[in-house]
Amino acid sequence: MPVRRLALPALALAACLLAGCETVAPGAPAARADGVIAIGEVQGRGWTSPLRGQMVAVEGVVTGRFVGDSGGWFVQDEGDGDDATSDGLFVVADAAPELRAGDRVRVRGEVFEHGERDSLTALQAEAITVIGRGEIEPLALTAAPDDWERYEGMRVRIDAPLTIGGQHDLSRRGVLHASFGGRLFTPTEVARPGPDAGRVATDNARRRLLLDDASAGEHPVQVWYLDGRPPPRSGSVVTGAEGIVDQRWGEYRLQLTAAPRIEYAARPQPPQVPGKVRLAAFNLQNLFNGDGRGGGFPTARGARTPAQLQAQVERLVATVQALDPQVAALMELENDGYGPESSLAQLVDALNAGGGDWAFVDSGEGPGTDAIRVGLIYRSSRLRPVGPPATLAGGPFGERSRVPLAQAFRPIAGKKDDGDTFVVVANHFKSKGCSDAEGADRDQGDGQACWNALRLESARRLLGWLARDPTGSGSDLVAIVGDLNAYAQEFPLRFLRGQGWTDALQAANVAAPYSFVFDGQAGRLDHALLSPALAARLAGAAEWHSNADEPDNVGYRGPNGREHAGMPWRSSDHDPLVVGLDL
User: Fold this and answer.
1) Residue 444: phi, psi to the nearest 5?
2) Model's pTM, two decimal places?
3) H or E stretch including 319?
4) 176 within 8 A of 170, measured Cβ to Cβ
5) Positive or negative, the Cα torsion across 514, 519, 190, 373?
6) Contacts with 145 (C-beta within 8 Å, 6 or more apart), sequence order
7) What is the reported pLDDT for 31?
8) Preceding peptide of 298 cis, ω within 30°
9) Tens digit of pLDDT for each residue in 180-239?
10) Which of helix, strand or coil describes residue 347?
């Protein structure tokens, strides 16, 4: 982060400071006889300092020294009697004495706002003098403050549990995302897009607090405050966090000065869902197998080496076997046909290694022309395909959303039919990335990100297609499953529910469901929606949080991936879901 640098003054300037001949710019607050003013007056009550650009002198105790890492150090005084102003300040110097926490210093310099976003009030020091030792007790916080600005630069102790929401910045910057009052949910998962979601977003920002390792260095070999422990899962609870409130890159963070206590969240067991037929949905996070013969690496997406592919497939197999469904809808398969060297065929081969009865639905081509596609696999001893599969191409399913794939099935026992015909439709709607988005598909600022109009049109066209019975089965028992790239309260899902389709997880009373964690916030991109007739046959539903809460580094491409070989953890970035049906 660029910082203004000023040349150090002559030694005479420091002597003048100590002698009390400090001069104060016109309009500046009244100073002590020696020219020192309270840090709170430098901070002021606003977002930026009222003394920006002025030369001031302050005196306080060094609470944290991060020279060479975060680019400076923090100093705090005993306060100015105004609770609305911070008593801490960040100090940057081209050269400084060897300082340690507890040193009482007098500093003269120019007030500026540190960082590209002008967020952290700081002092560019011209003179620094150590005048003794001191101690600043941390301020205890028992809840998220309404305004973090009043604590900027101050030493605090969090006397409340913090819930870890994400580790996506841990391996790169040593940062954990945490929050007061439980985990954060994506605003449009829990609130209608627009003002309601905006209020959730505001509250999330207030409750969020990043736990930082007090270093601007990247890719630490070890994150010191974890004390050699592995990264915690999201949902883990932190207590006793202590450090200095900092503001960088637009977010407040606690620069930790001691290792906090972390109660690690346990990995959940596979869900046990009742029902004669169990239907799973699972985004595989780009299952690409090179040329299918051990070459062709690195792939366009997914595994970079044959070893990574092997680890990926082992985890996917472990996940499917643990869920024990009779049919599964898959997303993010490589779109490479149905031959023996295809990613789909080789996944089924891996599922059947040692004796299995898995088969896949072959739609003849595609479906679709995207690099990835959806797929359907089923246990041939438990289900029988009824008629040919059907696909829906064109319109919103042309260059954007993946082509849906529908197949009718009937439960069987031995060689006899043993239940009603039902239809499974695998889906993967357009993602939220804004590349090429125009007009109504641009981000409307309501929390739904880009391509929402296309996703809504995809939902409309999908229902119109299903109303025409594309599989020719005549069954009204239909499940729409997959990654719709829309959270539960966004327009595509509201439309589908408004047309009479039932959210299986909601109907099964799953508390606070989520399948994906992004930017420390949890929500559902993966859904199971049941037609009215099929909803009456719902026996149960669940998600398995085997992936979204896991840190990246245990994934099949992570540095600790081999430690989890053959295990389901972080087999993807999405959690699978499973629905039980009484057919």
Assistant:
1) -90, 0
2) 0.91
3) helix 306-323
4) yes
5) negative
6) 151, 206
7) 67
8) yes
9) 999 999 999 999 999 999 999 999 999 999 999 988 778 888 899 999 999 999 999 999
10) helix
